[in-house]
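With this grant's support, we have settled on a layout for protein records. One resulting record is reproduced below.
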Amino acid sequence: MSHPSFPGPRGLARHAWLPLAAAMCLILLAGCGRKAPDADAAVPVIAMPVKATDGSIAGRFPGEVHARYEMPVSFRMAGRLIERYVDPGEQVKQGQPLALLDPADPSQELSYAKAVLDAAEHRLLFATQQRDRDEAQFKQNLISQLQLQQTQDSYASALAGRDQARQQYKLAQSTTLVADHDGIITSRQAEVGQVLAAGQTVFGFAQSGEREVYVDVSESRVGDIAIGRAATVTLPALPGHTYAARVREIAPAADAQSRTYLVKLTVDHADASLQLGMTADVALEGVKSSDSAITIPATALFHQGEHPAVWVVQPSDSKLDLRPVTVARYGEHDVLITEGLKAGERIVMQGVHAVSAGEKVTPIAPPHPEDAPQ
């Protein structure tokens, strides 16, 4: 009787490799149909050539109208706020109530102020009696001139201490916050029911009267400005109105973030139409103009550490180069460049944080025409 023959170990191994070999061939064939990725493929970026701007713009700066005196308003004692009588934007008069503390909260401070006043009045009574007695004895030549002067000094000190304690007691009795001057409430910093510390801000306050315009000047332009420099102020909200102004103050140090210097200008003959918070265009006299001024969108500005820079597309190989620039003015939507760029050079307008130096790119236009530089 014949038995079926079975393959040996070597035959089994040979048959087991056949499906695996077939699968590897299919993978290799599929791979041959694909194109290897190009390491030098250009990345599309929104980039446009820049245009020269009128150099006279370098002497103009965007600004904002402020009050000459702006200050926080607060209670001089701690307590719980139970009432607010005004809101931001309201005009207030001197002596007008603004807010109220819970009268029960300052009772301990009031008791302490009363005790201090009682002690001061007792010291004053003793000093008065001593002064009267020494003056009588001096007339009889019983004490020296020096001793009389010391007694009189003690009396004057006790009188000043009593007046100070009386003032503190008066303040402790008052739980109503009142306006010290005519002005406008610019902000609210505390809510009803909130427990306030002594001196904690309740309102922002702008005093009536003088008006100023604040502008930010780059470090490359601040050297052209001096105290007393004349300027002309115009406002988009008040067409046809022009105000004369002069530089009153220049910040001694640059802002840590923007690296610009705050310049305050006092407006001459400011009228009621000059409202707080209005945007202004300030033309400073004597600021050097630039024949190579270029305006770029704010989205095109990149910071290399603390220094501003832009990504320039090299025309020879379409690769990116990070170039330092000098900013003359920061606007709301654009930036004025006076050094580092030339008209016609192509720069990255958007996505400046998604590219790197030496990267090859393909410049494309912005998806919205209004985003292109004017």
Q: What stands out?
A: The domain at 107-174 is CATH 1.10.287 (Helix Hairpins). Confidence is low (pLDDT under 50) at residues 1-17, 27-37. Residues 178 and 227 are 36 Å apart (CA to CA).
